């Protein structure tokens, strides 16, 4: 594995056509002659001035292709340049330290019959997976298969991330069912919903790209490439459906929590209303008997206080019976 950091070349491999490859350095590119059945894969750091200079001056690509490959912001898309050349922009899960996985990394690719030129800004684990397969002799055999292997490795990372989202929602739903007092973190669930929406934003056009590659087979594609592109498209359809389901389930979790809070509040207000209604007649009676004016009945009677307490107790018993009859208690 050769790295030319001074030139911006991350990896360079000559594929032998049998699933293996040999790595080469930047100095060997100028005089490189590919043999029969061999293909070239160059992986560059897009931000490096040396990589940009080589792309514009020595790659043989048109100025338009170079401008598109080096533009600052882009989205997943497929751009055929001719019957023999294409530009492919993909997004992969960001597994770099201290990075959000759904903050996806762009991989920009130029490909023709014998050559693949890929550019990245940040390290991408998917390229490391393809390189490991080449070192084991189980990697791509042709330029078109490099595209398939890269797309497949990037899709595998999406599978893991979508599964994590689903497991998180499963855990929240289970805890809601088992513990009536459990309250899910509202901000956490909203964050998960935003992450799912962000991931879906890039997967949707990527699925269309895979479907387009499956429908429009180029002349230099390996015979079974179409089947693999179709399978990758179907996998992304499943992930998109799972992401939609995750977002819907998050909404249901938040609605369930809101409903539980509303029911708890209504029950509390109901109890307060019952208590208020229970003591209201007694408060009125005691307030009436407590006014400091002449002529109050029983004021001179030594049993007046006991009579008043008995009357209040009778009112309380009557209210209790009435509330039970009305099924308020």
Structural write-up:
With 329 residues, this protein is of the alpha+beta class. The protein has a single domain (9-260), classed as 2-Layer Sandwich (Beta Polymerase, domain 2), CATH 3.30.460.20. Helices cover 55% and strands 12% of the residues. The protein has helices at residues 49-57, 63-70, 125-135, 143-178, 186-215, 225-289, 304-325; strands spanning 9-15, 21-23, 39-45, 77-80, 86-92, 105-111, 115-120. A seven-stranded mixed β-sheet has the order 2-1-3-7-6-5-4, covered by helices on one side.
Short description:
The chain has 329 residues and is α+β, with helices and mostly antiparallel strands. The chain has helices spanning 49-57, 63-70, 125-135, 143-178, 186-215, 225-289, 304-325; strands at 9-15, 21-23, 39-45, 77-80, 86-92, 105-111, 115-120.
List the helices and strands and how they pair.
Blueprint lengths: L8 E7 L5 E3 L15 E7 L3 H9 L5 H8 L6 E4 L5 E7 L12 E7 L3 E6 L4 H11 L7 H36 L7 H30 L9 H65 L14 H22 L4
Parallel strand pairs: 3-7
Antiparallel strand pairs: 1-2, 1-3, 4-5, 5-6, 6-7
Helix pairs in contact: 3-4, 4-6, 5-6, 6-7
């Amino acid at each position: 594995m050769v790295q030319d950091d001074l030139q911006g070349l991350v990896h360079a491999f000559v594929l032998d056509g049998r699933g293996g490859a040999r790595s080469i350095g930047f100095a060997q590119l100028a005089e490189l002659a590919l043999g029969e059945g061999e293909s070239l894969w160059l992986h560059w750091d897009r931000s490096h001035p040396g990589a940009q200079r080589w792309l514009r001056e020595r790659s043989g690509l048109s100025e338009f292709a170079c401008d598109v490959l080096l533009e600052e912001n882009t989205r997943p898309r497929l751009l055929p340049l001719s019957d023999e050349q294409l530009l492919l922009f993909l997004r992969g899960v960001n597994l770099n330290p201290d990075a959000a996985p759904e903050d996806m990394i762009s991989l920009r690719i130029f490909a023709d019959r014998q050559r693949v030129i890929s550019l990245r800004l940040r390290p991408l684990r998917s390229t490391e997976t393809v390189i490991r397969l080449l070192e084991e002799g189980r990697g791509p055999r042709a330029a078109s298969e490099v595209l398939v292997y890269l797309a497949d490795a990037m899709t595998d990372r999406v599978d893991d991330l979508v599964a994590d989202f689903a497991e998180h929602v499963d855990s929240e739903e289970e805890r809601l069912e088992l513990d009536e007092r459990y309250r899910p973190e509202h901000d956490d669930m909203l964050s998960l919903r935003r992450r799912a929406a962000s991931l879906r934003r890039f997967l949707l056009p990527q699925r269309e790209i895979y479907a387009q590659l499956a429908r429009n087979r180029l002349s230099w594609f390996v015979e079974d490439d179409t089947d693999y592109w179709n399978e990758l498209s179907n996998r992304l359809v499943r992930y998109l459906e799972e992401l939609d389901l995750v977002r819907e389930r998050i909404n249901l979790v938040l609605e369930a929590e809101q409903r539980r809070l509303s029911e708890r509040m209504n029950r509390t207000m109901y109890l307060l209303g019952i208590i208020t209604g229970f003591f209201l007649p007694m408060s009125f009676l005691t307030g009436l008997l407590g006014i400091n004016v002449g002529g109050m009945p029983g004021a001179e009677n030594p049993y007046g206080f006991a009579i008043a307490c008995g009357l209040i107790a009778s009112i309380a018993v009557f209210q209790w019976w009435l509330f039970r009859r009305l099924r308020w208690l």
